[in-house]
Design goal:
Layout lengths: L10 H15 L5 H7 L5 H26 L5 H15 L6 H12 L4 H6 L5 H16 L2 H7 L6 H15 L9 H24 L3 H30 L17
Family: Belongs to the PqqC family.
Protein name: Pyrroloquinoline-quinone synthase
GO molecular function, one term: pyrroloquinoline-quinone synthase activity
């Protein structure tokens, strides 16, 4: 006799399952972040992180636009639109993208060089592009669930602000403005996203898919740090990737 399909988990149990994924797999556990936050990164390792993380930052509003292009519900589009506005900002303020480029300048890089995407490692590009495709092509519920790494982001931003201020001369209110702003932006975004997933994942199959989507997203973040470690801590810089001395501010 075949096993009967499992019913859906209760809302609280399913939320606990999602949070457990972050506790086990979020990239705050990666040794590169321990190195960065502890002040053990060289200036060039910090620059490599800023350059490669730009690939992810620059694609966030693009993946959100791809998501919105498939949404027929105006209420969902209105709620999701804030994410694009947070990162793209207005003409004068520029949002999270411009704040990231301010960090690039603070660590000695030419912001135009960073914004060009030159020097991105192949592994970073593949990981970020995979995330954009996932959000563009997978069911809307899975795409929203993948965004729930924001559940765990405020913790890492707080650790990063504290660690960078304690250990690096470039760190100040201006250079760390991106992370400080995300302390208030991310909880607003995740409140909506979490409620959407808990409400719409109303079968065990949908819950399993949502959990798998969140795991996928943690893998995307982890893979980027694996690449940084291999390239700039173990000094195996791949062809075409940024090399120390390139793209420096004038």
């Amino acid at each position: 006799m075949k096993d009967l399909p499992q019913g859906p988990q209760g809302r609280d149990d399913f939320e606990a399952r999602l949070r457990a994924i972050g506790a086990e797999r979020y990239h705050d556990r990666h040794p590169f972040h321990a190195r960065l936050h502890g002040g053990d990164c060289t200036p060039d390792q910090v620059r490599a992180w800023v350059i490669n993380r730009w690939m992810y930052q620059s694609r966030i509003p693009m993946k959100d636009a791809a998501f919105m292009s498939r949404v027929e519900d105006p209420a969902l589009r209105r709620a999701w639109r804030k994410r694009i506005e947070d990162h793209d900002g207005g003409v004068t303020e520029g949002g999270g993208i411009r704040r990231w480029l301010a960090l690039a300048q603070a660590v000695g890089l030419d912001p135009d060089y960073v914004a060009s995407g030159a020097g991105i490692m192949p592994a970073t590009r593949f990981a970020v592009d995979a995330y954009v495709r996932f959000v563009r092509d997978m069911p809307l519920l899975d795409a929203v669930a993948a965004s729930l790494t924001e559940l765990f982001a405020p913790r890492i931003h707080a650790q990063r602000i504290e660690g960078l201020l304690a250990h690096y001369d470039f760190a100040d209110d201006s250079s760390l403005a991106y992370f400080k702003k995300r302390l208030t932006e991310a909880p607003e975004d995740v409140k909506f996203g979490l409620d959407y997933v808990l409400t719409h994942a109303d079968t065990r199959e949908k819950q399993d898919a949502a959990a798998a989507a969140l795991i996928f997203k943690t893998d995307v973040l982890w893979a980027q740090l694996d690449a940084l470690w291999h390239g700039y801590v173990e000094r195996n810089i791949p062809p075409g990737a940024w090399r120390p001395g390139e793209g420096m501010a004038r």
